[in-house]
Specification:
Layout lengths: L1 H28 L3 H21 L4 E9 L7 H9 L8 H8 L2 H11 L3 E5 L6 E2 L6 E5 L12 E6 L4 E4 L2 E4 L3 E4 L2 E7 L3 H4 L9 E5 L2 H10 L1 E5 L6 E8 L2 H59 L6 H36 L16 H23 L5 H47 L3 H35 L5 E9 L8 H25 L7 H7 L4 E6 L16 H14 L9 E6 L6 H13 L5 E5 L7 H5 L7 H5 L5 H4 L1 E3 L2 E7 L8 H5 L2 H13 L2 E5 L8 H5 L5 E7 L7 H10 L6 E8 L26 H9 L2 H6 L5
Parallel strand pairs: 14-21, 15-19, 15-20, 16-18, 16-19, 20-21
Antiparallel strand pairs: 1-12, 1-13, 2-3, 2-10, 4-9, 5-6, 5-10, 6-7, 8-9, 11-12, 17-18
Keywords: ATP-binding, Kinase, Membrane, Nucleotide-binding, Transferase, Transmembrane, Transmembrane helix, Tyrosine-protein kinase
EC number: 2.7.10.2
GO cellular component, one term: plasma membrane
Length: 801
């Protein structure tokens, strides 16, 4: 039961994580849908232009069957018998041959691909094949050099000539041009296939050397075997013209087959010459031997050789053969013994023992080889001191003495047999000497005749076989499928191009969003504040593009007004009540909106029937007078130096009851020393008696120490961070201030939050908490502001932050 619950909980967690991933992706990128739409449109347009201007590439394919190199036909027996046929063909070798430069150069020369004719098109030059008016055939193709630019020419059909560089060249006759010696032939189908727009789109000639053309064609040619066991070879060629691709493949296959037949015929012809020469030599030797026999018999009056002499001779030959076999076996035994004695722990190949008939030795050597293989396998998975490896080593050590002992026994037996055969051979030789000297000499001459006659008969037979092979030479391959091109181009593939373009467009949009938000050095998200400091966030205030500093009034129900009311409520939960009434407003740097926050928060408090004192203690850069349009004279600095009283510096706002503003007054040369004046303590004490709340607008913390000096009077510090304005590096400073209690009861206000995305009407997905702010869209003033915003201004600002 518990396992079932755990599995259900695990599935729920995985589902929740998956949902969070999708929500995170949607939250980050959906507000920027115009960018994605723009990049999608641009990628489609770019892909269309690319496809339009890109030359299409077609693929032609063919397949041939290579004859099995394990089957020998009658025509190859002679070559193998004489050992002059060379290595047999196999698939791997033929793959290299098919893609060789020599074969491709042969195709280039045969098809005249070193001279290609193009016709000028609206976008690019188009290869004119096979419908070209003339064909340039080089008299010396190997001397053709590549030209950098196409050579324009004009075909003069009425004059049966071609005009190149202002000079006319007659067709069908050798001509000398600045580019080489050619014979310019009229195309067989020039009259029927010549394009009607040849005048508007003239022809040009592109020359390339045979080597350069072959190298270019090899780059577009691929050849492969269907499988390791198969002898079928697949050939593919890519080209801008599908018909030319087919022609090149077919020509290459034909030249490959023709070269194979020529090679076989060359070898057969050389073999036949060799046989004819040998027949002449052997025939002369045989004639001489037969003449010697005739002359000897006539001289010695011999009719036939004694049968006893023949028997003795045959026995001697058999003994010699057996002695040679024993010597070979002894040599093999020596090799095996050396292998066993010198062998270490590494596995090796046991010398061949096929001619030794002793089964026990064969079994022992086989056992030794199997143990070596087993030892090698165990070493790959076990250490040298493992029990299994030690056992195998022990078995090998025990096998070696047995093998050496068996070799010794076999050697002694073979030596005894050889001694007996030699004794028998000596006896037969002595017996042969007893044959009359005349008959023994005749036997020697007859032996030479027999040998020469056998050689002569063998050469005659092989000559006939070679002549048959030469007359019936066929290719070692046959065509399975002739070259055939795909009607659809393989490059560019429209679907792939559009897909890649769309992916690149999306990638560009993602990079734009990441560069705009993730890699921004300024604070954009509430989460960045939460991750950078432990100080709580008490409120979020939206950005309002209006220039009016007062955003909250009685009866005003805009989104920002409601946010200030929410801030007012949140302060009561942060300890601001009863005798705790002093609120310090500060920030990291100038321009984060602390004065704006102080004014509107003070107004929000007055709307709750509270009497509020708003003190401008940023004596260096006072802004209240300008923002509230009140008199700047008689301010706090005047009071601190004794030029004014508290009542004189207190300035009510008629349009906002219960709000009294204490402006900074004249800018003093020593504002920090003024804040240390005891009269400031008196001022705060007097204000606490008469007001429900006291709001102090202090200078930024990172620049000067005034805010920390004023901290002694505050019950809470509202630290203002402005969206897309405050650098992230100040978060560390805020966190240190919070951890070290350098300011009392620090709470952060995230100010000036702008909606995310390109078009900034409404607040659907912003940089603050979650996906929205819960204030809706139906506020009258907010709607009016949206309608007043010009759509073209919003579009113009969509790349701003």
């Amino acid at each position: 039961m518990n396992n079932t619950k755990k599995r259900e909980n695990s599935d729920f967690v995985e589902l929740d994580e998956s949902n969070n991933i999708f929500k995170s992706i949607a939250y980050r990128y959906v507000p920027y849908w115009p960018i994605f739409l723009l990049t999608f449109f641009l990628s489609i347009v770019g892909a269309s232009i690319y496809i339009h201007y890109q030359s299409p590439v077609y693929e032609a394919s063919a397949s041939i069957l290579l004859k099995d190199d394990k089957n020998d036909d009658q025509g190859t027996n002679i070559l193998e018998s004489l050992n002059i046929s060379g290595t047999k063909k196999n698939v791997e070798n033929e793959l290299v041959v098919l893609k060789s430069h020599s074969l491709m150069r042969q195709v280039v020369t045969e098809m005249g691909l070193y001279a290609q004719i193009y016709q000028k098109g609206q976008v690019r030059n188009v290869l004119s094949y096979p419908s070209y008016p003339v064909n340039f055939v080089a008299l010396h193709p190997e001397n053709i050099k590549s030209t950098i630019a196409p050579i324009p020419f004009e075909y003069l059909s009425a004059e049966n000539a071609v005009k190149i560089g202002g000079k006319k060249y007659t067709l069908n006759t050798p001509v000398n041009t600045p580019y080489g010696d050619f014979v310019i032939y009229k195309s067989a189908d020039s009259l029927s296939s010549l394009p009607a727009n040849s005048t508007k789109h003239p022809f040009s000639l592109q020359l390339k050397s045979v080597k350069a053309s072959a190298k270019q064609l090899i780059g577009a040619f691929s050849v492969s075997a269907n499988s390791k066991q198969s002898s079928i070879i697949s050939l593919k060629f890519t080209d801008q013209n599908p018909l030319r691709a087919e022609s090149i493949l077919n020509t290459l296959i034909n030249d490959y087959s023709k070269n194979g037949i020529e090679d076989k015929n060359t070898i057969a012809a050389r073999t036949l010459t060799f046989l004819e020469d040998r027949l002449k030599i052997v025939n002369g030797e045989l004639s001489k031997v037969e003449g010697d026999i005739q002359q000897y018999k006539s001289k010695e009056n011999i009719v036939d050789v004694s049968e006893e002499g023949k028997i003795f001779l045959t026995s001697v030959q058999e003994s010699d053969l057996k002695i040679n076999e024993i010597n070979i076996q002894l040599s093999v035994l020596d090799q095996v013994e050396k292998y066993i004695v010198k062998k270490g722990e590494e596995p090796g190949v046991v010398p061949g023992t096929a001619i030794i008939t002793d089964q026990l030795l064969t079994q022992l050597l086989l056992k030794l080889y199997e143990d070596d293989i087993q030892l090698e396998r165990l070493r790959k998975i076990s250490g040298e001191n493992s029990p299994s490896i030690i056992d195998i080593k022990t078995q090998i050590a025990q096998l070696k003495p047995s093998i050496l002992e068996n070799i010794h026994t076999i050697r002694q037996n073979l030596l005894a047999s050889r001694a007996q055969l030699q004794a028998n051979n000596n006896r037969l030789t002595s017996s042969l000497k007893s044959v009359p000297q005349k008959e023994r000499a005749l036997v020697q001459i007859s032996r030479d005749q027999l040998i020469k006659s056998g050689i002569y008969s063998f050469l005659l037979q092989k000559r006939e076989e070679t002549q048959l092979s030469l007359a019936a030479s066929v290719s070692d391959s046959r065509i399975i499928d002739a070259a055939e091109s795909n009607p659809n181009p393989i490059q560019p593939v429209a679907s792939n191009v559009y897909m890649i373009a769309i992916v690149l467009g999306i990638f560009a949009a993602v990079i734009f969003v990441l560069a705009r938000e993730v890699y921004n050095k300024l604070i954009l998200f509430r989460s960045e504040i939460e991750n950078g400091t432990s100080a709580p966030i008490i409120a979020e205030i939206l950005f309002d593009p209006g220039e009016e500093p007062i955003k909250i009034k009685d009866g005003n129900n805009t989104v920002i007004a409601e946010q200030f009311r929410a801030l007012r409520t949140a302060l009561s939960y942060s300890g601001i009540q009863d005798d705790k009434k002093v609120i310090l407003m500060t920030s990291s740097i100038s321009g984060e909106g602390k004065s704006f926050m102080a004014i509107n928060l003070a107004i929000a408090m007055t709307l709750a029937n509270k009497k509020v004192a708003l003190l401008e203690l940023d004596l260096r850069k006072p802004k209240f007078a300008k923002m509230l349009k009140i008199n700047r004279e008689n301010g706090i600095s005047d009071y601190l130096v004794g030029l004014s009283t508290i009542d004189e510096i207190k300035k009510p706002l008629p349009e906002i009851p219960n709000l009294f503003v204490f402006t900074a007054g004249a800018i003093a040369p020593n504002p920090t020393e003024l804040l240390l004046n005891e009269k400031l303590d008196l001022l705060i004490k007097e204000l606490k008696k008469d007001f429900d709340y006291i709001l102090i607008d202090s200078p930024p913390v990172s620049l000067i120490t005034d805010a920390k000096l004023l901290n002694v009077y505050s019950d809470i510090c509202l630290y203002v961070i402005r969206h897309n304005y405050t650098p992230k590096l100040y978060l560390k400073m805020i966190d240190e201030i919070y951890d070290n209690d350098e300011l009392n009861n620090v709470n952060i206000i995230f100010n000036g939050i702008k909606p995310r995305g390109m078009f900034r009407q409404g607040f659907g997905q912003g940089y603050g908490q979650s996906y929205g702010y819960g204030y809706g869209y139906n506020y009258a003033e907010d709607t009016a502001i949206k309608k007043s915003n010009n759509i073209f201004k919003n579009i113009g600002r969509r790349f701003g932050k």
